[in-house]
Amino acid sequence: MPLRDWILSELKSAFEHQGEDGIVVWYDAGGTLSELVDEVVLEGVRLIKFDGSFLALRFELESNSPDLTGKWLIYVPEKPLQESWLRDFELLGERLEMDLLSLLQRRCNLTVTLILTDLLRNRPENSKRLVRKWEQLMGDRMIIESEIINGLLAIAFGLNSWDIQDAVLLFLSEQNWQETWQEKLGEQGLWEIWRKRLQEHFGWTDTETPTNEKDLKVKAKASILLADLVCSDPSLARNFPFVPSDVNKCEALSQLAKRWRDSTTWQAFYRSAANEVEQQYGLREILSLNEAMVNAETFKVIDDLWVQELRRAVHPDGSNFGEKVENLERIAEARKGLFWSQYDDVLKNLWEAVGLAVKIWRKTQDAIKVSEKLQSVEEFTKRYTDDWWQLDYWALKLACVQNSLEAEDKNRFLNPAWVAYHKFLDSVNRAFMDAVKREGWKPTQRDFWQNIRLHQERVAIFIVDALRFDLAKHLQEQVKNVVKFDVSILKTALPSITEVGMAALLPDVEKLSVTWEGERLIVKVGGEVITTKNDRKKWLERFIKKNGKVIDLNELRQIDLGPLKTLVILSQELDEFGTFASDLHPRGLLEMVNRIAQAVKFVAEKGFQRIFVVADHGFLYVPEGCKVCTVSAPSNTLLTKRRFVIGSQPKGCWAVKANELELEGELLFAFPEGFSVFALSGEVGNFFHGGLSLQESIIPLLKGCVISASKVSVKMEEIPEITSRTLKVRIGAINKTIFDQPRKVKVLVNNRESKSVEVGINNPKGEISLLWLDAFEDPPEFVNVQLLDAEANQVLEEKKVPVKLVI
Question: pTM score, two decimals?
Answer without folding.
Answer: 0.79
